[in-house]
């Protein structure tokens, strides 16, 4: 009987194999889209492509010349859109960071350190790095830079990253993108220590951002900047329809994940989306991070939409100081006729992105030194005032900074914690 059963199973197996369709997987070009950079390197074959889907590059149809198209016809009546001033918002954020860095320097004689690895001579990358170093100086963060030639070997970049990983005075390591074509961005970015990944690109950071109930060590800076701009402008996200244009690991994906955490309804538009304008016209908020100048026209927006333009596309022009100027993804002239609020380029998302980098670096340093922030309950503030205990800011103290030796406390010794001026200051 067993022999008969075995013979039957073999026949069924052979018949199934003969009738099974043969599937050939074609490996498409890889999509290394980081900071609006696309690579033509071949992708690695994955055994789960059938379920995960092929990794196709987003190649957008370029609208045309870099000069803005003529303004679109608008409806009767003119909107006066609010210009969301990223520069002033960034200054507010940097002021708070500078206060904390000053406290660290005075109290523990340490300051945060940020290291940047720059490969090649791209003018836009050099400008971005200069802006980051300048911002570090403004708030008191120590900055270091490893500058390598475009022809250098990948191992040289990895060695620079490793050196900064091991340096205890460095609390954030950033590799400026894009990298030269002969280098593997995933390998180099993956070499950055998780504890120093202030760009937030480490797979564990991204994974924790995606999972409900989990918190990443760092949130990617540009995505964090988009949310910061909206919230500080008094724009509520809960229940809003938001269209995110672009799905890169740097901006599009983390922005989508953050918006979902704020209970927005998110639609993602990419190069394979049919009739993208139909999607964006339904959105209360449009966030564009495609890296294509003038991609988003006024006709893509519904009247009263809020527009966050993450695009910083360098357009060569020798008449400008650095030989180029920046143009956003959104046709600004057209959007002004339709939107209720919009970020300019430059001066919108860019400055806040740099401020978020400084914020992540500060958080990393505080974690390294064991400094924590505890929200001060009202009764502690009242207790201090009742006992005539001075604070750094008497108006409305918000935060108590504690050093490691003071963090083990319970309700019974909260009074001692509140009255002990040596443990820190309020800001």
Kindly describe this structure.
The relative contact order is 0.14. By secondary structure, the chain is of the alpha/beta class. Helix content is 37%, strand content 13%. It folds into two domains: 82-360, Rossmann fold; 370-423, no CATH class. Helix 9 links the parallel strand 5 and strand 6 (265-269).
Helix share, percent? 25-40%
Number of helices: 14
By CATH, the superfamily of the largest domain comes out as NAD(P)-binding Rossmann-like Domain
By CATH reckoning, the class of the largest domain would read Alpha Beta
- In terms of DSSP E residues, the strand content is 5-15%
| Uncertain parts | 15-40, 65-74, 374-384, 391-427
Order of helices and strands: HHEHEHEHEHHHEHEHEEEEHEHEHEH
Radius of gyration over C-alpha positions, nearest whole angstrom: 26 Å
Main sheet characteristics: 6 strands, parallel
Any guess at the CATH architecture of the largest domain? 3-Layer(aba) Sandwich
Assign an overall shape.
globular
**And the CATH topology of the largest domain?**
Rossmann fold
Instruction: List the strand order in the largest sheet.
Output: 1-11-8-7-5-6
- End-to-end Cα distance, whole Å, is 84 Å
Number of domains: 2
Structural class: alpha/beta
Topology:
Layout: H1 2-19, H2 49-52, E1 82-83, H3 86-108, E2 113-119, H4 123-139, E3 142-148, H5 154-166, E4 172-175, H6 185-190, H7 203-210, H8 221-232, E5 241-245, H9 252-261, E6 265-269, H10 276-280, E7 285-288, E8 306-309, E9 313-316, E10 324-327, H11 332-335, E11 341-342, H12 349-369, E12 372-375, H13 378-386, E13 399-402, H14 414-419
Helix pairs in contact: 3-12, 4-12, 8-9, 8-12
